[in-house]
Every structure is written in C-alpha cells, then in structure tokens.
Design brief:
Shape: flat
Distance between the termini: 99 Å
Number of strands: 96
Radius of gyration: 61 Å
Structural class: mainly beta
Largest sheet: 6 strands, mixed
Length: 1232
Amino acid sequence: MLSVTTLIPPVKEAPTITTQPKSHTAFSLDDVSLACEATGKPTPSFRWVKDGKQFGEVLLESGSLTAGPDDELKSYQGSYRCYVANELGTAVSDLVHLITEPIPTLAREKKQERRPFEEGESTVLYCNPPRSSVAPKIHWMDKQLTHIPLSERVTISLDGNLYFANLIVNDSREDFTCNAHYTTASVILPKEPIAIAVTASNSVVKSRRPQLLQPAGTQSSSYLVLRGQTLTLECIPEGLPTPEVQWEWMGSPVSPGHVRKLQYGRWLQIESVLETDDGDYVCIATNNQGSIRHLYTVTVEAAPYWTKWPEDQLYAPGETVRLQCQADGIPTPNVTWSINGVPITETDVDPRRRLTPGTLTLINVQYSDTAVYQCMATNKHGNILVNTHIHVVELPPQILTADGLVYSASAGKTVLLECRTFGSPLPKVDWEIVDAGPAHANAKMSQMTDGRLQISNVSKEDSNMYRCSVTHSNRSISAELKVFNRTKIVDPPQDLHVVRGNDAVLQCKYTVDHKLKDPTVQWKKDGHKITTSPDDKYAEYLDGSLKVTNVQMKDTGTYSCEISTKLDSDSAAGSITVQDKPASPHLLELSEKMDRSVTLSWTPGADNNSPVSEYVLEMKEEQDQAGSSRWEKFKTVPHDIKHLEVHLEPYSTYHFRVSAVNAIGHSEPSPPSDSYSTPAAKPEMNPENVRTVSTDPNSMVITWKELERQHFNGPGFKYKIYWRQSSDRDLHWKESSVSNPPFIVNDTGTFIPFEIKIQAANDLGGGPEPVAKIGYSGEDVPLEAPSQVSVTELNKTAVMVRWSPVSTESVRGLLLGYKIHLRRKGPRTHSRRGRAIRSPAADKNRVIEVSGHQLEEVVSDLQFYSNYTLTVAPYNSRGEGPHSKAYHFSTPEGAPGPISSLTFESPSETEVTLHWEAPHNPNGEITGYLLQHLEIVPGSSSPRLVETIDVPAVTEYTVKNLDPQSHYLFYLRARNTAGDGEPVIRQGATLLDGEPPSVINMTAGETSVNLSWVPGDRHRNFAFRFRYIQKSNGGPWEESEQVNSTQAFYQLQGLDPGVWYLLQIWPGNTSLAFKTNGPELQELPSSFATQGWFIGLISAMILLMLVLLILCYIKKSKGGKYSVKDKEEGQVDAGARTMKDDAFGEYSDNEKCSVSQPSVCESKRSSSDSLADYGDSVDIQFNEDGSFIGQYSGRRDPHTHGGHDSSGATSPNMPPPSISFPTSVTGILGPN
C-alpha cells in the first residue's frame, strides 16, 4: 500500500445518500422501518415525502423512519421518498413502497373425510394457504413432521398443491398436511390433515396416456417477466406409467446455464432473465401410451436501468457543464431532470440551460449553479433516479499524488501511473518519459481524463522514470516503473475423471521472475480455499501440484490454483469428476397384475457421474412355502427403459429387484419388491427327450428329461407313463405314475419295440397330449459270426477286409457295427546268413470298429514284411458276438529304416573308422549298406562328392586316404531287396597327432604354482611331465607325475617360498622360470645341532625308548587285572561302555590290533593307505563311446622326492579337471 499525503483545502460537500430505503411488507408497527442515511458538509437534514406529500418532521443526524407506538399500522402504507439537504443542494432517494397487512391466520376448517381411490388413479391435494403480498413456502408433511417423499410421480406445484400422477396402495395415509411458512411474518400455518385410501384394483389396471394437471385446460399459456427476475414454468402431468417430461426452447432442447430443471423436471426455472430468453417454450410429457405438449409464450420486458449517468464534479465559474444521462428498458423509459428535488420544468426559465434527450447543458456556470441535479428514468414498470453534485468553485491547482512513487508490474499487464490533481477549474497535466520525451509519443501510452497515465502491455523496455507536470504551473512529480517477468502457469490442471477411492493429482507447474521471491500457491475447490487437513486429504507438492487422496463423491468439483507473488498472480482451473457405480434404483413398483404377468416400474438412482448403460432385473421365485430360492438374473434392458412387463409362471411367488450398470460397475440391488403370487394351473408342457435306456434283456427302462420346478404349475406334480407293444394287436395302453425318472417295465422279452409316452400332471389335471415315441426292451449279445472273410492287398501297408453280414434275428438288438481284431505275429523269415533280423516286438492287438451295416473296411499302417491274423465280430450295446474264423496274411518287404547308431574313430590322420548298428526296422532282409562321404569345400554352398562305397552286411568300415585338413559329410543307408533306406548323416574329420603344450601360463603361490595351457584343436592326447629345479642350489631335476595335454591345468606343489625355479616340459625343449611368493628362506648358521653325528645319536635314543614302551605295553596286556574271558567281553562292549577317568586307557584304538592278529592290522593299514593315497586323486576320464583316455595321478613317481605329490583334482585351489580330448572323433562329429 502506498501512503499518499493529500493536501486539499477544507471544502464543503453536497449531501450523498449512503443507505437507500427498501420496499417491503410490514405485518406490525415493529416492521415499519425505512432507512435513509447520508453524508455531507455541513451535516444534512432529512425529510420524507409520502404519496407526494410531506410526511412527518424534518430529521437531523439520521433520516431513518420508524412508526410511533400508538400509530395505526394501516396509516403507513404508501410510496415514500427521502430528501437530504444542506446549503450545497438536496439529494433524493429512490421511490419505495411500504405495504401493511395483518399477520396471516387460518380460518376454521372442517375435518376432511377420507377420500377413496383405486390404484392407478390420479388426484390433487389442495393447500389453499391464506393470501398475502408475500408468498409463503409450502411444505407437505405427515404428523411426524417428516416431508412427504417427492418424485416424478408425486409433485408440488407453484400454488402449493400436491399432485399424484398415479396412485399406489402405499399412498394410503391419514396425515397429508400442508404447512404454509410466511418467513417475513415468522409464522407457520398447518392446514387440516387430508386422508386418502388407495385400494388395489380388482380389475386390470389399464395404462393411460398423459394429461396435464398443471397448466390445465389449454394447450398454451403466456407469461410476462421483467429483466433480472426469476421465471418458473411448471408442467405437471398425470398418466400410467408415470410420464417423463422434456423441455424445449424454440424447437431445441433447453441448454444448461442459467436454466435449471427442478422438481424432477416438472419445473423449468430461469434465473436473472435476459431479453434473449424471450420466446416459446414447450413441455412434452410422454409414456408408453402417448404424449401431450404445452406451449409457453414468454415475453421479456424491462424496468428502466442505467446505461450512462453523470458523475460529481468541480467546475470553475464560466465553464460549460454537460450532464449526460441515458437509460434503457422495455418499453423505452422517459428521462426527466430535477434540481435539488424540484422538477426542472417547475423552475424559472434560464437561457443558460439547454435540454436535449438525455443531456442537460449549463453554459457559463456561476456560483449559484452549485446544486444536486437529479436524473430520473420512468416507464410502466417503475422508475430509477441518480443524484449528481455540481460544485462551482475557484481553487488553485495542486497535485495530490506523492512524489517519487515506485510502480512494479509484470510483463503484459496494464499499468496506471497516478497523478491526481485538485483545483477549480480542473488542472490539466502532461506526462513525459525522463530523458526520452513526451509519453503520448509511445503508442502503448495514453493519458486518461483524470490525469493518470495508462501504459498497456508493459515490457522490460518500459522500465523507466516518468514525470507528471501541471500545465501552466511549476508543479510536477516523478514516478519510477519496474517491469518483471510475468508469473505464468505452464502446466495447468486438467479435467480428471477418477473412480471413487482412487487418488487424483492435479498439476499446476509455474514459472516466476527470479527477483520475486516466495510465491504462494493457493488451491480452491468451487471457490473455497483448500487447507491441509489432519487426515491428509490434500497434499501439495513443491511444483504446485495438488494430490487428493481417496476421492469420494463430495470431492467432485472445480479446482483452481492461483500462483501469487507480491506483484501479480496467475490462475488456472481444472476439475475432478468422481465416478462410481450407480446408486441403487428405488421405488420399485408392481402394476398391471395379471395371472401370468406383471409390470415392473422403477425410479433410477444417481448415476454418480458415469451414465447408466443398462438395468439388470433379477427375480426370486418360490414354488412352495418350504422351498428355498435364490436371486437369478432374467433380463437386461437399456438405460432408457424404466418399466417392463414380465411373464410369470403359475403357482409361484415372485420377488423382484433391479440394479443399474455403468462403466464403473454394478449398483447395489434395489430393495426387493412386494411379493406377488400367481394361481395354480395345469402343466403346459410335457418332458422332452423321452427314450429307453434298457440294459437287461427282459426289461425296458424308460427315462426322460425332467421338467424344471417352475413348470410344475401346481401341487401334486407327477409324470404319467403310458406304454404298449407296437408289434401287438392289442391297442390298450398300460399306464403308471411316478415322481421322477426312470421307470422300469419288466417281463418284456428281448429287444421288443414299444410305443411310449410321458405326460406331466398335477392336482388340477394333465398337460398337453404327449406324442408317442418308439422304444425297445433290453438287448443281448449277438449269436452269429460273420462269414466269407477276405483280404485284398491295396499297397504294401494297407489291405481291404470284406465279410458277409449276420442275420437280423441273430443280432438280438440294434446292430452297432462290426469289430476287426488284427494281430501282428512277427516278421516273415530270417536272413540268409542265419542271423535273426532285429524287429520290434509283435504288435498289440488292434481293434478297428466299423459302424452300422458296412461290410468292408480299409486296414492301413501295417508293418512291412510281417505276418498278420484277423477276425471279425458283430456287436451291439450289450457287447460283441462270436468271432469269425481267423484269416492269415502277410505283407511284402519295404525299404529299411535308418540305422540305429553311427560312431567314429580316427586311428590316424588320414583314416576314419565308422561303427554302426543295423536298423530297428529292417522291413525285410538286409543285404548290405551304401556309404557315401563328401568333402566340405570352404566357401561353397554344396559339398563335393568324394566316393560312394557299397558295403556288405557288416557293422563297421574304415575310410582311408582322407585329407587331414578337411571336414567330411558321411551318408550311411541300409539296403534290402526293396531298395535303399533313409540315410544317417554325420559330419566329422580325422584327429591330428598330439604334442606337448608350447605356451604355459603360470600363477605362483608360496608353495605351489598353477600351470595352464590351451589344448590343441583336433589333437590326440599326449603324455608329458614337468621338470623343475631351484636356480640357486642346483642339484638333481625333480619331475611331476605324467600329465595329459588335454588336462589344460596342473598344480605343482611342495615348493619353497620366495625361491626362483627353472621349469622344463619333457619331452620338449620349452624352458621357463618363475619365483614363488613369500620371504626367502635364510640358511641357519652351522652348529653341533646340525651335525650328522648328533642327529644320529638323538634318533637312536628315541628308537630305544619306543622299543621299551612297546615291551611294557605287551607285558601289561598279558598280565592285566581281568581274566581272558573278561577281556574278550570287554573288547566286545568297549564301544557301548561308559568310560571313567580312572579306567581310561585299559584299551585304546591302537591296542585293538593285538600281536596275535597281525594280519588283521596289516589289512587295515593297507586299506587305509590305499584310500588315503589314491581314493581322492584318481582322475579317470572316458570318451563319449566309453573308451579310457585318462590318467591315474595321485602317487608320486618312486624316483621323485616326497612332498611334491600333485593332486590336481583334489586341491581346493584347483579347478575341476578339464575334459580330455577323446581318442575318437565322436566329439567333433556330433552325437549319434
């Protein structure tokens, strides 16, 4: 806020009315109060004029008018104006009207008798409240003061009456009470209760087309409404089903805005009517019986309202005053002028005054022209008045705005630089940009009539110093303008649709000028500020975004964010529409109740911002009082259907309910309807699928598909069974009754035809006459075998089998067909060389079913070169009959299958030996094999044929003279007299001679070194050794055990730390050097302890002591303190006996081997040594074909020193042994 010191000399002020009186109705003297307050210097006086005459005395300080305690209320009714005056003039208030009337009361009413109605009729309950200038609010309530539920069917009209479009039984009550609430009089008047009784109609309730209850009588009506008022049109129809109401304006559906639908669409309300709302409105009431229309012609007129009015102003003597006063209205208002409340037509004529339409001009004004001038506009709808103060005075010019003000604005805004002046005549000012010239030279800058400088769409370039100067004086002020970057929302909130229970995030990202610190973010919902709440409903992020958690229906609304700085702000709005599954439909009603149908009607619930797509109707049906039932869906209808006729079954009790469906989900079902029961009736259908399922040869089993319970139609339901032999001349039906299938007829004979029929019946009678079906008694197995069985070869694996039919009598039932039993007995013969031909085991029996009366069948998928046996047998539902005589036949040879396996060996660099096994399916006698090998030429897409060899019937062959540098494809086929079989194809190459590795990678530790190398590709395994010696000490070379070239890794152990070694590969000429890790070993100085004689002496002494200890132990064992028997028992139980400290040592593990059992101890030591020395170090590798190619490493060579044993496979620092290169080429050629 800028603090401006105003230096205005004390001046007089004409009266200005600050509180205008208001028109109202007074019900008592306390209600008589007309306000009239004003300001002015000197203090003005007040007087009232009622109906054009002076009323009361002149009032000082306050002009408010109140009634005296002894006055008559009626004497205050009339039209009033307040006149406020001081020496500068008289101001006049608006014209107001005060209406007086007594407080409304009810006349004594007779108690109304109960009014009877039939269900479906329409009616009106009249209210007729006492008349008053103030319309009361009407409330229809019951004796518990609970509002009567309103709906499309039950509506209150503008006159307060209660309309029923159609009545239902539940409308019956004795306490329909109309309560008239006069708010101004603070009184509620309850009318006498009205009682109605609605009875269910014994006749069929008929639907009827809509008729209008309000407006009544005519098809059109006219309305006159004033601009700014509220207009309510009502359209209350009656009909069955309840009609729906639609509104149109000028031929199109009414659009939302200031037009609202109230009272379930029965009212159309237009708030703040405009001239554009003039026109024709149409109400259309529709149900399934028809529709009715009503036309409302709305005419909009207007009381006077100002479009331009004069303002208070100071003038100097001699100036010209021009007062403009313009008003509009329908019809056009008349404008008149008054001076100090006196019409100008009633004052003396002054040639300096000129009147033109809407303008009063005063030429060469004088001090005597100082006054309050009134402009009044009048038409038939009222009048309006405005006061304008003209003060003629002469004062020197002054600038009221402080000097040196700083204005701040954001780019793009419009800025007003103040330069308020005071003086008479009114001073004129000029603006200039300091050091840049006049401001009016800039197109964005303009000077206002009050002296302010307006700068539009400011930018950084407009930041400058400005000066305002009074013309023809030395008075001036300066002002500074600073322009900042505009605060801007760059990512405004969007319109979100959110499912209830989810979270919603509204974006509001913004940018501000870096010089404007601490911007504030304020979110609002529907115009109300959002504050943080304890339940964390709202959370604001640093970027301005707002998170609304767990949104509910109440969170639906418009959300706006405002980014504010001390200089400017920016705002944007979005919305959250919370969607949910619909609310349950309600007011589910049953009408048009008939024996076999009923009409359901319901009222939709709220769609919760997701349109309803359909309604799901459910039914709960009870066939008897004790029977349980459940809700079942029976119909889905579109969203625009609100009633439906439902077909019902007899002898059932029904309940109904409805649920709504939208995109979010299903609503909860509506409350169940009242139960509705239908009377019993005869069954209307008979069971279906009547048939016989007989299994016993001397009986007939009749069965059928049972009827659903809802088709029983009455009590005592049963099935009547009728049967008779169709081959018998007796036409008499036998009958019986059962409650459920099956029904068995005994002593019928085998496969006898019967006529059968089933009829549904209950206590009221039988259903429709059933249609007879043919059924048969039970079957038995056939008695006769087919004859003349023959087999004709179609190809090598398929034959045609034919036979003669069996007689009809022998089938003893319905012939289902024939079964061919086929069995393969094995291959036809053996090979000429006396070796059995390998073939699969004999086939299991194959059974081929031939349906019906077919007498031939193709049997395929036979094995080549095989012997077969087949028989044919008839069958019916009881089983197979006897088989025909066995028929034997054989199949010819076929080309053999592929060989069973193919492996390779490479005895040299130019040879490959192939090993294979005969085919699993030789399909004849193998006569030999065809071997082909082709050289694979690099860069060529097809191999080159090298040689084709016809191999006799052997299972191995060596191919010689191969190129060691080439790869080959080998094709091997088996042959018999029928041709060549499928080839087995393998790729391979010969193996090259092995050699020791030439490149060794070494990784040294303190007492070992890891040696690794890459085995040669396609090389045979090669055995070698590592030789090593310390560089400094010399001495003999030490050797490792034998190493295979395919190992790829070896660990040399038992080395000294910090020592250089020489390493050689033997055989070979590769020499290497390495040094172990750790400190070097220092040689101890020479002393007697290192002399050989001393070491020998000590060794002899230790040996002697050991011999003495052994002798003592043997002696102790022979003596002991136990008998021999006890010692033997002790040896047996030593492991199970608890040892005490004082008895420990009687026997030990070493003592268990006595001198008398040296062989046992020897055996144990030998076994232990064997396992310890070799068990974990055996490294045996096999080829893919099982050949041994490994090494046996773990024991040192007897010629090498102890402690350097290699155990590559068992050392924890070594990787697992590598797979050795096989001596055969199977690994290269791939799997068999």
